[in-house]
Design a protein that fits this description.
Elements: E1 2-6, E2 9-13, E3 22-26, E4 29-33, H1 35-56, E5 65-71, E6 74-80, E7 85-92, E8 100-105, H2 109-123
Antiparallel strand pairs: 1-2, 2-3, 3-4, 5-6, 6-7, 7-8
Helix pairs in contact: 1-2
Length: about 120
């Protein structure tokens, strides 16, 4: 089992858990994801942050931004400025209608969580 955690966030991967091998968490909460849910989440976050990075040079230091992206089953939003932002996710399983949840990481937990998420993705594809 691989586990990373910091102030206000947690991320774990346990390949021995066949149905839900990925755990994501925040302050006082955690939930498990399937491999497909994890994969789609990582791709969505990477695309959302690439969009934010494209806009960074156009934003003034104190200018606020809110970017949203939806790619079923996920909806994601980063909210903040060019250097610090929060992350909110909504998951709705439209196919099976079996699960749905909303999660949130505030500044600076969001950046730390996403950095750990990208590292885990790069190491365990």
């Amino acid at each position: 089992m691989i586990q990373e955690e910091g102030q206000g966030w947690r991320l774990a991967r346990d390949p021995s858990r066949k149905n839900f091998p990925i755990l994501i968490g925040g302050e006082g909460w955690a939930l498990e994801l399937t491999k497909d849910e994890w994969r789609s989440l990582v791709l969505l976050i990477n695309d959302l942050l690439a969009q934010l990075q494209q806009l960074e040079s156009q934003l003034m230091k104190e200018e606020l931004i809110s970017l949203e992206m939806e790619r079923l089953p996920w909806w994601a939003c980063v909210d903040g400025d060019r250097l610090a932002w929060s992350l909110k996710l909504i998951f709705q399983d439209h196919e099976n209608r079996s699960r749905g949840f909303e999660v949130f990481w505030p500044i600076p937990s969001a950046q730390a969580f996403v950095a750990a998420m990208r590292t885990m993705w790069d190491c365990y594809q």
